Amino acid sequence: MDLLLTQTFPKADENVLLTVFLTKENLEDANDWLGTDFSGFSFQEDYATNGAKTLIPAGSFLCLVLGLGEKPSQETVRKATAKAVATANEYKFKSLQIAFPEQITPSFTLSITESAILSNYQFLTYKSDKTANTLAEVKIWAKEKNHKQAVEKGIIIANATIESRNLVNEPVITLTAEEIANRAAKLGNQYGFSVDIWNKSKIQSLKMGGLLAVNMGSKLPPTFSILEYKPEKPVNEQPIILVGKGVVFDTGGLSLKPTPNSMDFMKCDMAGAAAVIGALCGVATLKLNVYVIGLIPATDNRPGENAYVPGDVITMYNGSTVEVLNTDAEGRMILADALAYAKQYNPELVIDLATLTGASVVAIGGVGLAMMSTAEEPVKKQLREAGERVYERVIEFPLWDEYGEMIKSDIADVKNIGGAGAGAITAGKFLQKFTDYPWIHLDIAGAAWSQTPDSYRGKNGTGIGVRLLIEFLQAREIQ
Ligand code: BES
Ligand code: ZN
Ligand code: ZN
Q1: Do residues 453 and 368 make contact, with C-beta atoms less than 8 angstroms apart?
Q2: Which end of the chain is more exposed for a tag (fewer CB within 10 A), N or C?
Q3: How far apart are CA 3 and CA 138, in angstroms?
Q4: Do residues 446 and 364 make contact, with C-beta atoms less than 8 angstroms apart?
Q5: What lines the ligand 1 site, CB under 6 Å?
Q6: Which ligand 1 atom sits closest to the C-alpha of 330?
Q7: What is the rounded CA–CA span in Å between residue 283 and residue 292?
Q8: Where does the pLDDT of residue 30 fall: very low under 50, low under 70, confident under 90, or very high at 90 and above?
Q9: Do residues 297 and 182 lie in contact, with contact meaning Cβ atoms separated by under 8 Å?
């Protein structure tokens, strides 16, 4: 889809859906900038209410009026843009032209851009009929030249998110552990970061016991990918490491998923990995002056012939032992090896993203990301604020010692499940044992996948985490 700026007030025609963003503040002046097509027409106050959607005639064509309420936020503008895109496609328009007079700023232009692209996203790879949405162009009425940069940035961020969505939506029959590594390498070539892929024998020689244990029930080998983006003179000498859970499909293994239909969307269990890959695409395109490494342990989790079983004791990459009491708690097994491996880089900060627990879905649903962290307060604050800005909001759960008691094993150093309560936290507590650096864990189990259409986040893979990570790293660059 093309994103353009226009200096002249947009005009409706049979291909063009003119959309006016109406706020309480611009309501009074609205008639002035509407021009001759609308003479005699006056907006009513309730058109400007946040969420209001009204179709009015513009000459012999249509004008969509979207209310943004009073002092609209970036998220209000993203949501309004999503509505405009959906309406344009519903009525089969080719072009959408947005007028957001008086109040439009470059950051609103960025929000409109990213939301327009994300809202128009479709995953058509496996459709015989590849009829795409009719909408192929969005024009934003903005007078100043500095909006161009905002459009460019919005395009980059939306495209990075789409790369992530494409990976999440790909089924495991194609997106195996080897394939996610290959795709990362391909994207690395395209966007400008390096990717080193380890195969099974390398993983064996490094004794990544957690990753190998989860892989035992699979016919297909695991992979471990190392992504690197290193500008010449980065602001950080020690890298920021992003670790993504890459379970390309989670059946639960021998502790087969007990909840009806819960397996249906378990191709999304590599959404953490996809977020890391997408973020690297964005960071590299924006040429952020930040040194970033991505680590992606990948495998499927299946109940095959030689699958690891409850009761097994696994020796992990760092030499510690884990008693497996549920093979469905596999994410922490593979992440633990990656987190322990991250130590050797002497990282400034490690952030892992994982569709880790159903418990986090119970706690916060798909509305936000559950954070657990050992990083200093200012670092957590930066992430929280980045989350507010891009509306991928982060809420912190505690890592109190008592939760550590719940994962004590009788026969090994730790067990891979806790008790009935605090499932998201005992998972985080398990991961903490494999870290000795400032660390942030983000459980994205709820937000990674949407069963129903959700504004510009769409349906199915949402690409959650990509915009958050890019925003956070961008703030780190200028710090
Ligand atoms: N991949 C799942 C978590 C998940 C749930 C992701 C819902 C997306 C949506 C994870 O591997 C898992 O199965 N976790 C178990 C852990 C339990 C056995 C301790 C869970 O949360 O039920
Ligand atoms: Zn599982
Ligand atoms: Zn899983």
Answers
A1: no
A2: C
A3: 5
A4: yes
A5: 250, 269, 326, 328-331, 355-359, 361, 417, 423, 445
A6: 11
A7: 9
A8: confident
A9: no
Output DSSP code: residue 134.
S
How many Å lie between the centroid of ligand 3 and the Cα of residue 358? 9
The residue to which tokens 């390498």 are assigned:
185
What stretches of 183-318 adopt beta strand conformation (E)? Answer: 194-198, 223-229, 240-244, 246-250, 292-301, 313-315
pTM of the full predicted structure? 0.98
CA atoms within 13 A on the CB side of 473: 33
Angle at 35 between CA 33 and CA 36, to 5 degrees: 165
* CATH 3.40.630.10 corresponds to the domain 171-478: yes
Listed in order, the ranges of the chain carrying CATH 3.40.220.10 are: 2-140
| Substitution candidate for ligand 1 out of 264, 328, 407, 441 with most atoms within 8 A of CB | 328
Q: How many helical (H) and strand (E) elements, i.e. helices and strands, does the chain have?
A: 14, 20
Rg of the Cα trace of the chain?
Answer: 24
Superfamily of domain 2-140: Leucine Aminopeptidase, subunit E, domain 1 (3.40.220.10)
The predicted-structure confidence for 305-320, as pLDDT tens digits, reads as follows 999 999 999 999 999 9
Residue minimizing CA distance to atom 16 of ligand 1: 329
Residue 402 tokens read as 């008592």
84-124 per-position pLDDT tens digit: 999 999 999 999 999 997 789 999 999 999 999 999 999 99
DSSP H stretches of helix in 91-131: 106-119
CA–CA distance, 21 with 193 (Å, rounded to integer)? 39
Supply the DSSP string of 122-144, one letter for each residue: ---TT-SS----S--EEEEE--S
Q: Please give the positions annotated as active site.
A: 257, 332
The answer to whether 149 and 440 have CB atoms below 8 angstroms apart is no
Residues 6+ apart with CB under 8 A from 147: 5, 104, 106, 109, 140
Q: Residue 182: helix, strand or coil by DSSP? A: helix
Q: Alpha-carbon distance 168 to 132, whole Å?
A: 20
